[in-house]
Amino acid sequence: MNTQRASLTVNTQRGSLVPRDVGSPGKDMQLRVIPAEVKFLDTMAGRVYRLPITVHNLGRWNQKIRFKEPIKPQFKLILTSLDKELASGLQMTAMVEYHPDKDEDTFDRLLISIENKTTEIPLIGLIPSCKLEIESVVNFGTLVANSKVYSKEVTIKNRGKAPGIFKTEYCGQLPILIFPTSGIVDAKSSVVIKVDFCADYPRIVDEEAIVILQGQPEMLLSIKAHVVEQIIELLNMSRDRRLEYIHFGPVFFGSSKIQHARIHNNSPEPINWVAIIQDDAMGEEMGTDTRQRTDIALNNLTYIRKIKNIDTTTIISCLPNEGTLQPYQKTVITFCFTPKLMADGKKDIGPSYRQDYALFLRFESVGSKDGFLRDDDYKTIKSERFQKMELALTGTGLPVLLQFDPGPVLNFEPCFMGERSEIQCIIKNQCELLPLTYHFEKTANFKIDPEKGEINEGGMVDVMCSFVPHQLGVFKVKQKIEIIGLVAEEDLQSLSIKPFHHVYLNFNSICKASTKKVVMKFDAGMLPLIHNPMGNFVVKDLAKRKNYAPVAMLQSATPRTHNHHSCEEPVKDVLLAFPNDRAATIRSKDHDKHFR
């Protein structure tokens, strides 16, 4: 006969101390029996199973213990004698044997008595059965309301030795589907059931589904989710507050101004976004003067048609204008404003001239936004407000207007080389909103002091313009004046200081040649041996100036270009005749002296 030891399903450290005689006084029975319940699990007919039972005397005196055998023949108490005497503090062990003859559950009891008190130990024999387990909560977490279907898997485990049957049922109104709804779990295996949920509307989901497991009472499966909108936010750079508009303020035509912001994906899923400039939005202004009357602006149809053909991305740009944001990610985007002058033939460009811009930039997510389950127009529109965001961009373009006094033609007094002629010029910035920085380019024969400077809003600066000629002639020069400011680089994400506008002045003057007067003056000079009338005349320069232009002098005496090569030997001791000797001068009587 095959004998097996069964398993105990209770804590073996706990025993039975409950007396069977309920009419006895409240004195506890000084006997502990371990275990309090003897259970034989997964038994099969034809096999024998055994489990021990221990009796411990807790009293101070010896105890006479009587065992009463089970009634059913499948259970048998293996003990030499049913009457035992147990000394104080000692324990004894008996063996309970179970040999089922049928594949069915069997129940009986074992009675242990001390005097008039009896303890009852249940005896249970169970055939192999299933033991099904399932998780009690399915939590989808935080989801985006984009009409997508999300799935979670739940595992039903069978830790028993027999197959088990399960059933599930959901009776709620939400788009929740459980599949399969029923099935069999084999012994020592598991089955996965799938819970699908469609996140159609923002809501907090706390639903329950009924689950029936074989051999267990009905239980509930909790289904939880938090459905939120997919929100795109624009935040400012300093305090992470929501940004609704960007005001660039006044900017000179040709220069640029940059502003930054953060785009934020305030949702638990990645999002693809794109930025689109709205060309036909209500309230849009493109290069118009918002201060003038409406009827005047509408009458200028030529200018209106001209501004409608302008590419708005050349005026206001957003970089990057598309991308992907991970859950709760923030990234920096750059807005660049570069106004361009659009000439209006009917209007003079004066100090009051301006072009105002008001454009709208829409940020929206790319992908599924409105699912087929959305049949409520109001809720659909409300959802779009979170998936689309509009940003207003405003700015004003101003012309660079400089007034020169005198100007723009400066006529300098004629002067000689080395001298200078000066004119003090006053430059006024006619723009009352912006300062500007100027720079005079270097021009030959003219000098500006200071060459570079800044003029405040509506302010003036004195500039000394000087004519310093280095050559003779008539001068008509165009003096270039650069207006320097911040100009966007090619990537439109950074600025650099460059000239963005030019103004010209006309400089006119004459450099005259200096005059000389020749006076003949008698000089005794060098007298010959015979005193005849003679003299020389010396040229004296009457010009008062001392600075002469450098001239090249011919050094005729240094080279031997003019030597007479016909002479075989140089003549020695030759005297030079004074250049202005008279032709009647008598030669010396000394024939050894020679004159040239």
TrEMBL record:
Q: Which GO terms describe its cellular component?
A: cilium
Ranges of compositional bias, category Polar residues: 1-15
GO biological process entries: sperm axoneme assembly
InterPro entries cross-referenced by the UniProt entry: Ig-like_fold (IPR013783)
Q: Where is this region: Disordered?
A: 1-22
Q: Which superkingdom?
A: Eukaryota
**By what name is this protein known?**
Abnormal spindle-like microcephaly-associated protein ASH domain-containing protein
Taxonomic source organism: Rhinopithecus roxellana (Golden snub-nosed monkey)
